[in-house]
Structure formats: structure tokens, C-alpha cells
Write a structure and sequence with these properties.
The complex is a heterodimer. By secondary structure, chain A is an all-alpha fold. Chain A is built from 20 helices and no strands. Chain A has one domain. In chain A, α5 packs across α12 and α15 runs antiparallel to α17. The radius of gyration of chain A is 22 Å and the shape is globular. Chain B is mainly α. Chain B is globular, with a radius of gyration of 23 Å. The chains are: A mainly alpha, B mainly alpha. At the A-B interface, α9, α11, α13 and α20 of A face α7, α8 and α9 of B.
Chain lengths: 411, 468
């Protein structure tokens, strides 16, 4: 029984292999923030599109980590005990994400990002006028406050009770966490759906797709599991993971990455196929804008890089079992997640944003701001993430399923 | 791996309820399960149940005979609602089958040990449900003897695939693949048990029949090795089928532009609904069977609770879809979509919609309570609600969307006729007849897999743990 004969170093600090990223992250983040301010001054609308895409990605990692935590509390599994603290560290960035929403909020209030904030246009447009009951600034703000209030509250209790469990070993806390997670998943599904409608779908307010928020949710889970798996794999050779973690856990991480990759493909392909077959004028512009004018190459790169490559690679046991390759596969998928979100958001920058404007389709463009924004938010996010990670022991030793999960070689 | 004996392997990590009753040994499992088939004999109760089911089955055959004699005009379908009971029932039955595949394939790959005692039963249910489902589209053809037109074959019409862009055509392949893979999976899983039955049989005839179907199984290490590999391979093959079949069924609706059908989230919505309906049906059947045959040691409260949990989760997914359908109907700002929502909730079929919400969204919320999840009576009642609710869901989607489409001059109403109902209820007789025969003739719980749950068996190859 490995964890008895070689006692675990519960209080082992976060390995240097990880911590060496913290200062560079801060430097990149701060430089990025400065450049982002410059970008915002130079071209606010261009900047907002880049920023929204970067925000959506990092917010997705944060939300995805919360959902994974809750799924793990309800279903168990050694992977989640190993990844608990990294997922918590991500979830605890929720308050930071609320702060980072401010530029988008400015975009809404200054009528720079969404066409439905333009009251004159809404008055003149029958379609937008009908939607104005939902798509109007005051109601948008109410919903915004609600989403972040819910997310911060859930992140807070998930984090706090887990810490209390670590300190006191109180058995009741596990049940409390489960009770929080069941309704939590339900409320996450609803808030993630409507925040997707508010922040992304309403970029093109003539268009709607009921699958779109689901693809976004699956994408968030995929981003979060990739970050978690990569981080655990990076720390695997150090205490306290060494001796505890086995190829079985890595296989579980790899299989989860595979499952979410397949689910992303399933939801994305279904949306495409149904839109294509229906061929309705209010729906097809979304794809016309994203398959023409150079964007088709980006779509093709998604097919190859977001599905085919990870799918084939993650089927291989040689990739999953040693753990280390998951760092690179996870990193690659994270990159493709960003490409996917870029492909979602950027075409709205120069497209007609609706079926009246099919004649001027979007053309591919990549501004320096599109590269700076994810690095700016990412640097700050990673710095806080690593700071959070250092505040607790890396293994939740009082998890009631700890013994069961690791006694059999664990699964 | 001597380590594993320290912890009770039969206890699932998520709860303290055991997945197998205390005090069982290899022999007691074999005895208890095989005795239901070999020693219990044909009891009076079984005869009565089988007799009733068989009579309903005969009613189905009568209904089909009249249908073929007269034509599909005997049904309620009309120019407005060209798809009625036939498609509703097809989707209902095919959805029910999904729990079997989920239990046997996905839960196996996820190392869920509690699947063991219910998988055989649920897989049988899948097969019988698919048989019932397949009847409807074939009969809906009007001239079912031409059903082979659906398959690609060299013919004088010069087309191998009749309209391969139609999801109805994809259905043919999705469902036939599903049926064949499920059958092979079920049969392969049965082989070691058939050999046990052969060895325990008391007369020459029984021995020969079980012997024939057990393909010469002797339980050697090599046999087990091959068996484990093929079983895992088939589980891998079945996994995509859980998603693919109902996805394609949802395409039947979603690729059209009918309001209420054309929604991009139909595929996952339908898959969740299928699993939901399937688990409700497993509960509906498992609860009485476990009571009649005294199988509480094998189908424990743990099983019931877990099935209740999956019902709760999938039920809430379906609930999400219902709410979002209303929202997007409004958000579309499209008058036809908005009318569809209005017509669904307040139109002539409003009562069915209300019943649907009660059965499918409100009733399963009771499952949040642990006390209810562990109570067989409550679960049975809720599962009945869900089965009815899932039938209503398809009725609402299909009939309500079709009966008032784009042009008010084309509006009409729809109701099933006597022949619709006799066929629908008749398929339940068909299903139950097959189920009664299954219970009487085959071990309804996998003996070999149950034995692997025993503490001493942890060194033995654990299915799904050997490789994954």
C-alpha cells in the first residue's frame, strides 16, 4: 500500500516546476494589460472583439473548473481528488473574472460592441425591436450581476468547505459539498446558457441556435480538463503526487479529454448539419460568415486540430498512461479552443451582423490585439491561479473517498 | 494485488449501500439465479402473466392484419398530420432501448460495478424494445412488403440509396446497426452463463439446447481471455450507438424547417430523453421482478438509487430543453416559431402539454430526496409518470407542430383511432411476451459477472478494469 509505506508529504509545497511560471506570467500579464490599454485607446471596437474572445476563453476555464469540481463531488473518481486543488485554484479566480468583465461592460454602456445597444437602430428595426424585451441594457446588467453573484457564491462555498474539510476532517462536509453540487450543476447550466446568449449569441442578434450555448459549455469543460490534466502531469514527479499518481489516473484524465473532444465535435457538427439542412436565411449567415473570406481555412483547422488530431492521439494508451504527453496534447487543445472562440467572435467585427447584410461577408483578419488580449488576461489569470494553488496542500487528504480511490491502484 | 482485500470491493465508493447482499458465495449466486429457470418450473403466476401478455400480442397481430388488409387509412393520420402514432411509438420504443446500451457499454467503460446485476435484463429490454420500434416505420410504409427498397441493392431503378440525404434513410442503418450490435453484445455476455446452465441442467434436452448455444464454453483461461477482449471491444462499439441512434432519430425532425422541429439542440435533447425513458422502463420492470423472484440481494437498493439518480439527471436535461424551447421560440422573433410555442402551450392540445410538464419535469423532482430514491414504491410510481411523459413529449412534438403549420388553410386536428391504439398497446404485449420468455428461459442476471463482485474474486479479471 504505497501511501502507507512511504508516507505522503501532505504539506509539500507547489513544485518549482510550476512556480517558475508565476513571475513570467505576471510580467506577460502586466505588459499585456498596458498594451491592451493602448489598444483600447487606438481602436476601441477592434479591441473589444479581441478582448471578448480572450475573456470568453479564460472565463470558460474558470467556469469549466467549477463544473468539473461539482461533477466530481457527485460521481467520485481518483482523477478528481488529484485535480481538486488545481480546479479549486481556477474556480477561485471567479472574482477576478468579474473584475475583468469591466471592459466589456464599458463596450455595452458605450454602445461599441453589440448592435442591440443602439437604441435608434432598435427602434427602426422590427426584429430587434421585438427582442428588446430581453436584449436591453438595464436587463442585461441585472442578468450580469446575477450570473457573477451565483458563480462567485458557488465558487466561494466549493472552495471554503473543501478547505474546512482539509483542516478539520469533518465527515459532514463531504455531504454538504454534494448537496451544493447537485443544484449547482443545474444553476450552472442555466447561467452558462444565458450568459452565452447575452455575451456571444447577441453579437449577431438576428441569429440564434439552441445548440450554441451547449457547445460553449462543452468547450469550457474541455479547456478546464486540459488545464487540470496538464498541471497535474507537470507536478506528477514531485511530492505529494509521486507514488500516489498512477497511469490509471492519467488514463482517466486522457479519457475525459477525449470524451469532451468528441462531445465538442458532436455538438458542433450537429449544429452545422441542422443549420445546413434547414438552409434558412436567418441561420445560414452565421456559417457563411465563417466559411468564406478566408475563414474557411480556420474552420478547416478546427476540423483537423480540434477534432481529428486530438481524437486519434488521445485514443492511444501510450499517450495517456505516461502522463507527460498530456501536457502537450492539453496545450494543443487549449490553443485550438482559442482558435474556435476566435472563429466564433472575430467574424462579427466586420460582418453585417445579420441577414440583411449577407452581401458584405466577413473577411479574415488578425489584429495584434487578438494576440495581446488572451496573453494579457491569461498572464493575470495564471498568476492568480498559481497564487491560489500555493495557499493549500496539494492533496485533499480528508476526502472520504481518498482511501478507496487510491487503495486499488485507484480509479 | 493483495491490497484490494482490505476494502470491501463490493461497496461502491459513492455510498455505503452494497451492490450485492451479504453472505453470497460462487455457488449461492449460481444456485439462486439458475434456479429461477431450472428448478422453479412454470409457475401459475408466470403462466397468468405470460397468458395476458400473449393475448395482447395477439391483438397486435390482429391489428396489423387489418391494417395490411385495409391500408394505413385505418389510422388517424391525415393530410396535416402525416406522422402520427406510428412515429410517436417508434421514437418512444427506440428511446426505451437506450438504457440497456448505456448500462452495458458506457457504465462498463466507466467501471461502474453496480451495472452488473441489471445489465443482462436491460440489454434484453433493449432488444425487445427495438423489435417493437422497428415495426412502426415499416408498417407506416403502407406497403411493408416493399421495405427492402430502403436497403441499397442493385436494382432497375438505378439508385442504390433511395434519397440518401434523408435522415429517414439513415434511420434504417442506425437502427439495424443498433439491433445487430446489441444482439451480439447480449449473446456474447450470455455465453459463460449458458455454459453454467448447461452444466446444471437436469435433463438431456435442456442440456443439449444450452450446450448448443454455449458454443463449447469450458471456462478455461484462454476462453476467458478471448471473452474479456471481445466483450470490451463490443462495449467500445456500442458506446457511440447510445448517441448515434437517437441523434439520427432527432435529425428526422430537426433537419426540416417545421417550427418546433427545427432546433439545433435536438440531438442531445433527444439522447437525454431516450436515456431518461430507458431508465424509467428499467425501473418499471426491475422493481416487480426483484420482488416476485426475491432478488433483493442482487438488485439492491443501491441499484434503485443509482437508477433514480440517472433518471433525475436526464430528467433535468429534458427539463432544460423544454424551457429553452419556449425561450428560443420567443427569442427567434419569428412569427411561426412564436406561434408554435403559443399553440403548444395554449392551443387545442394544451392539456397534453400540461400533463407532459407534470410527468416529465415535476414528478422526477421528487428524486432529489434520498428517502424517495431508496423507496421502491416511489420509484415505481415516478418511473410510470416518466414513461407516460416521454410518450406525451413525442406526441406534443409531432402532432402539435404538424397540425397547424404555416398556412391556416391547412390546419386540422389529429387523434389516434381504435387501430392506432390496438397496435400501440399490442406492441406492449409483444414486448412483455418476449420478456416473460426471457425470464423463463435465460438467467436474467449475469451469474459470471455477479461472481466477480465477491470479495475473493478481486484477483480475477474485472471486466472493464483489465483494459480500457
Amino acid at each position: 500500500m504505497s501511501y502507507d509505506t512511504k508516507p505522503l508529504q501532505w504539506d509539500a509545497p507547489v513544485p518549482a516546476a510550476i512556480l517558475r511560471f508565476q513571475t513570467p506570467a505576471l510580467v506577460i500579464g502586466l505588459l499585456g494589460v498596458i498594451l491592451a490599454v493602448v489598444a483600447a485607446v487606438l481602436d476601441f471596437r477592434q479591441f473589444l472583439h479581441a478582448y471578448l474572445f480572450a475573456f470568453t476563453f479564460w472565463n470558460g476555464v474558470t467556469l469549466g473548473a467549477m463544473v468539473l469540481l461539482m461533477i466530481q463531488y457527485l460521481t467520485g473518481g481518483g482523477w478528481g481528488i488529484l485535480g481538486r486543488r488545481t480546479m479549486e485554484a481556477a474556480a477561485r479566480n471567479m472574482g477576478l473574472m468579474a473584475l475583468l468583465f469591466l471592459p466589456i461592460l464599458a463596450g455595452v454602456l458605450l454602445n461599441k460592441l453589440y448592435i442591440w445597444t443602439d437604441t435608434a437602430r432598435v427602434e427602426a428595426d422590427h426584429h430587434l425591436h421585438q427582442k428588446a424585451t430581453y436584449l436591453n441594457v438595464p436587463f442585461f446588467l441585472v442578468r450580469l450581476v446575477f450570473y457573477f453573484a451565483v458563480w462567485i457564491a458557488w465558487a466561494h462555498f466549493l472552495s471554503r468547505w473543501s478547505l474546512e474539510q482539509d483542516q478539520s476532517g469533518d465527515k459532514k462536509l463531504a455531504q454538504k459539498l454534494r448537496n451544493l453540487s447537485g443544484p449547482g450543476l443545474l444553476i450552472m447550466a442555466i447561467t452558462m446558457t444565458f450568459s452565452n446568449i447575452d455575451w456571444l449569441m447577441s453579437l449577431e442578434p438576428y441569429w440564434f441556435s439552441s445548440m450554441y450555448p451547449l457547445i460553449n459549455m462543452v468547450g469550457n469543460l474541455l479547456s478546464a480538463i486540459c488545464v487540470t490534466a496538464a498541471l497535474v502531469a507537470l507536478m506528477a514527479d514531485n511530492a505529494p503526487f509521486k507514488g500516489l499518481i498512477s497511469s490509471k489516473h492519467f488514463r482517466d484524465f486522457g479519457n475525459l479529454m477525449l470524451a469532451f473532444t468528441m462531445l465538442w465535435t458532436y455538438t458542433s457538427l450537429s449544429q452545422f448539419l441542422i443549420t445546413y439542412s434547414g438552409n434558412l436565411p436567418e441561420e445560414t449567415p452565421w456559417y457563411l460568415n465563417r466559411l468564406n473570406g478566408g475563414w474557411g481555412y480556420v474552420a478547416a483547422s478546427l476540423l483537423v486540430g480540434h477534432f481529428m488530431l486530438p481524437f486519434v492521439v488521445l485514443l492511444q494508451r501510450q499517450v495517456k498512461d505516461p502522463g507527460k504527453p498530456l501536457i502537450y496534447v492539453g496545450g494543443f487543445i487549449i490553443l485550438m479552443r482559442m482558435v474556435d472562440l476566435f472563429w466564433w467572435i472575430k467574424p462579427t467585427y466586420d460582418a453585417g451582423q445579420g441577414f440583411q447584410a449577407v452581401e458584405h461577408l466577413s473577411h479574415f483578419s488578425l489584429s495584434w490585439m487578438d494576440l495581446i488580449a488572451p496573453l494579457a488576461i491569461g498572464g493575470v489569470w495564471v498568476w492568480f491561479y498559481l497564487r491560489n494553488l500555493q495557499q493549500r496542500p496539494l492533496i485533499p487528504r480528508h476526502d472520504p473517498h481518498f482511501k478507496e480511490a487510491f487503495a486499488h491502484g485507484g480509479h | 494485488m493483495a491490497v484490494s482485500n482490505e476494502f470491501e470491493p463490493s461497496v461502491s465508493p459513492t455510498s455505503r449501500l452494497p451492490v450485492i447482499g451479504p453472505g453470497h458465495t460462487y455457488a449461492s449466486i449460481n444456485e439462486k439465479i439458475s434456479a429461477i429457470v431450472l428448478l422453479r418450473g412454470t409457475t401459475f403466476g408466470w403462466l397468468v402473466g405470460f397468458g395476458i401478455a400473449f393475448m395482447i400480442f395477439m391483438m397486435m397481430l390482429g391489428s396489423i392484419s387489418y391494417l395490411i388488409y385495409k391500408g394505413v387509412g385505418v389510422w388517424g393520420i391525415n393530410n396535416r398530420v402525416g406522422w402520427g402514432f406510428d412515429i410517436i411509438n417508434f421514437v418512444w420504443w427506440i428511446g426505451i432501448g437506450h438504457a440497456g446500451t448505456l448500462i452495458s457499454a458506457i457504465l462498463l467503460l466507466l467501471h461502474q460495478k453496480w451495472r452488473t446485476s441489471i445489465n443482462r435484463f436491460a440489454e434484453a429490454m433493449t432488444l425487445f424494445a427495438v423489435a417493437c420500434a422497428a415495426l412502426f416505420p415499416v408498417l407506416h410504409l403502407g406497403r411493408p412488403w416493399y421495405a427492402y427498397f430502403l436497403f441499397p441493392y442493385p436494382n432497375t431503378m438505378g439508385m442504390y440509396f433511395p434519397q440518401f440525404r434523408s435522415p429517414l434513410e439513415w434511420d434504417v442503418f442506425a437502427v439495424s446497426t443498433y439491433a445487430s450490435v446489441s444482439l451480439v453484445f447480449w449473446y456474447v455476455g450470455l455465453i459463460p452463463d449458458l455454459a453454467t446452465m448447461r452444466d446444471r441442467a437436469r435433463n438431456w434436452f435442456t442440456k443439449t439446447v444450452y450446450g448448443f448455444f454455449s458454443l463449447g464454453w469450458r471456462g478455461s483461461a484462454r476462453h476467458w481471455h478471448r471473452y474479456e477482449s471481445i466483450y470490451l471491444l463490443l462495449a467500445g462499439l456500442s458506446t457511440p450507438l447510445v448517441l448515434s441512434v437517437h441523434t439520427i432519430v432527432s435529425f428526422d425532425f430537426a433537419v426540416s424547417i417545421i417550427p418546433g422541429w427545427h432546433a439545433t439542440f435536438f440531438p442531445p435533447y433527444f439522447v437525454a430523453g431516450a436515456i431518461y425513458a430507458g431508465f424509467a422502463m428499467v425501473l418499471t420492470l426491475a422493481i416487480p421482478v426483484r420482488w416476485v423472484y426475491g432478488l433483493e440481494d442482487f438488485i439492491t437498493d443501491k441499484h434503485l438509487e443509482n437508477m433514480g439518480l440517472i433518471t433525475l439527471v436526464t430528467g433535468n436535461m429534458v427539463g432544460y430543453a423544454y424551457i429553452m424551447e419556449l425561450f428560443y421560440g420567443w427569442y427567434s422573433a419569428n412569427e411561426y416559431e412564436q406561434f408554435m410555442v403559443h399553440n403548444r402551450v395554449l392551443g387545442p392540445y394544451w392539456a397534453l402539454y400540461v400533463a407532459l410538464i407534470v410527468c416529465n419535469i415535476i414528478a422526477p423532482q421528487l428524486l432529489w430526496s434520498k428517502r424517495i430514491r431508496r423507496n421502491a414504491w416511489w420509484l415505481f410510481a415516478i418511473s410510470m409518470f416518466v414513461s407516460v411523459g416521454m410518450w406525451l413529449e413525442r406526441y406534443v412534438i409531432i402532432v402539435v407542430s404538424l397540425h397547424r403549420t404555416f398556412l391556416p388553410s391547412g390546419w386540422g386536428t389529429y387523434a389516434g383511432t381504435f387501430w392506432d391504439w390496438t397496435l400501440y398497446i399490442g406492441t406492449m404485449g409483444f414486448f412483455l411476451t418476449l420478456l416473460f420468455l426471457f425470464i423463463r428461459l435465460l438467467p436474467m442476471i449475469s451469474m459470471s459477472e455477479m461472481q466477480m463482485l465477491l470479495p475473493g474474486a478481486s484477483g480475477a479479471p474485472q471486466k472493464g478494469e483489465a483494459k480500457s
